[in-house]
């Protein structure tokens, strides 16, 4: 779908590591160089930074069916989640819902609230999946938020978040959707969630150091940050700035100081590339190739954790391997095959540059393990 010549690092490797991070785009490296050149212009460079930043906001808005002002640029998805934890201002007796397929960034900030009397309700997975019914079964009148990943980093299972949101609209609970393992690979819709968070360096093919925090204004207008910075206020030099201030009326109120412009330049480039190709077309490629991988793994005797149904998965394909970390390290050292291993499993993640030869290479080296 996209030639491997568009990336650095693929000449002598089989890169199935996309759920951790993607290989560097040649154009993204050029984008970093453009940022450094623009810095030479001093004030003019800052003007260019602002233009690239706005272009990124517009690209990201198109990817999530939102508006540019619905998006705050923060350091990473973990920071975005923590900002929401602070903004909720939960009280003793309130509860939030998480599940056992969440990455630690979607777990740890909530656990801190337990010492303040907030209940953290944990939904257990069944056969590596958590359903809408599972989560709704523990929602009550004191539930303030449900935290869920669109696609699980553990199993690759894809959540029907649109149905979850439809049902949560009948409650007081907000939906915080982590799309770190899906945005750039499959369609995402801000209109079917209250809050979206995402990192920069996985399926969006940017570099480390940037995160997206998007707010659907329908139910989040009263969600105010627990902190304040100059990037989040309407007037830096307001006459009464030493006694009061006014937040932006949109997601930008969650921004504090200058963001990572090197990452902004690379993500502006990579999101533009994703939009040019088309996420729906990328999704078709990923699902077809992932289906082929599941078939080959099952034929080789592996227990695949990822659902085979196309609507229930995206780019992550996980399979049981008790010595997953050791196996991943051996495949890296001996065969230059990159995949993630640990926690009793291996995860091979296919993106728009992968092809059937990559899958065949994986199966071949696994047969030697």
UniProtKB/TrEMBL annotation:
Keyword list (alphabetical) reads: Aminotransferase, Transferase
Residues of the Aminotransferase class V domain: 30-362
Give yes or no: UniProt keyword Transferase: yes
Q: Which domain of life is it from?
A: Bacteria
Q: Which protein is depicted?
A: Aminotransferase class V-fold PLP-dependent enzyme
Question: Entry's InterPro entries?
Answer: Aminotrans_V_dom (IPR000192), PyrdxlP-dep_Trfase (IPR015424), PyrdxlP-dep_Trfase_major (IPR015421), PyrdxlP-dep_Trfase_small (IPR015422)
GO MF annotations in UniProt: transaminase activity
Q: Any stretches that span the bilayer, and where are they?
A: none
């Amino acid at each position: 779908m996209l030639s491997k010549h568009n990336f650095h690092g693929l000449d002598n490797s089989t890169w199935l590591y996309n759920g951790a991070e993607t290989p560097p785009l040649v154009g993204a490296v050029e984008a970093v160089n453009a940022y450094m050149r623009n810095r030479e212009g001093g004030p003019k460079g800052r003007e260019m930074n602002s233009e690239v930043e706005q272009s990124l906001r517009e690209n990201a808005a198109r990817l999530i069916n939102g508006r540019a002002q619905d998006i705050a640029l923060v350091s990473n998805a973990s920071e975005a989640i923590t900002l929401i934890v602070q903004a909720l201002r939960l009280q003793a007796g309130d509860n939030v819902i998480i599940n056992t397929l969440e990455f630690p960034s979607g777990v740890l900030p909530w656990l801190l609230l337990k010492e303040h009397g907030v209940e953290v309700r944990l939904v257990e997975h069944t056969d590596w999946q958590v359903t809408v019914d599972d989560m709704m079964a523990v929602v009550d009148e004191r539930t303030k938020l449900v935290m869920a990943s669109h696609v699980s980093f553990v199993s690759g299972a894809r959540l029907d978040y649109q149905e979850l949101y439809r049902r949560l609209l009948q409650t007081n609970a907000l939906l915080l959707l982590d799309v770190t393992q899906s945005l750039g690979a499959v369609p995402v819709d801000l209109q079917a969630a209250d809050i979206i968070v995402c990192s920069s360096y996985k399926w969006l093919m940017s570099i480390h150091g940037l995160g997206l925090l998007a707010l659907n204004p329908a139910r989040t207008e009263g969600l105010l940050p627990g902190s304040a910075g100059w990037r989040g206020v309407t007037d830096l030099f307001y006459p009464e700035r030493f006694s009061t201030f006014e937040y932006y009326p949109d997601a930008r109120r969650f921004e504090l100081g200058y963001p990572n412009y090197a990452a902004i330049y690379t993500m502006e480039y990579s999101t533009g590339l994703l939009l040019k190709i088309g996420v729906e077309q990328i999704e078709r490629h990923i699902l077809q190739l992932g289906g082929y991988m599941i078939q080959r793994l099952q034929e080789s005797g592996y227990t695949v954790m990822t659902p085979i149904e196309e609507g229930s998965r995206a780019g992550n394909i996980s399979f049981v391997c008790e010595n997953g970390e050791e196996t991943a390290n051996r495949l890296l050292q001996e065969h230059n095959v990159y995949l993630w291993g640990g926690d009793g499993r291996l995860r091979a993640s296919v993106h728009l540059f992968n092809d059937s030869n990559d899958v065949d290479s994986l199966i071949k080296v696994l047969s030697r393990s």
